[in-house]
Amino acid sequence: MAEEAGLDADDTCAWAERLGWAFGLVADDPAARGAALVHLAEAQRKVADALARSNEMWLLTRHPGTDEQYREPAFLQARRRHEQAQRCSLPDGVWGGSVGGDLATWPGLPYVLLFLEWEARYPLEWTQHAKAWGTKQSLIRKVARARQEEALKAKLTDLVEIVVHRAYRCKDREYVRVARAVDSADLRGRLDRAAGSDSPWARCHAGYVLWLLDRPDLPNTRHVWRTWVAGEAAALM
Question: What percent of the chain has pLDDT over 70?
Answer without folding.
Answer: 88
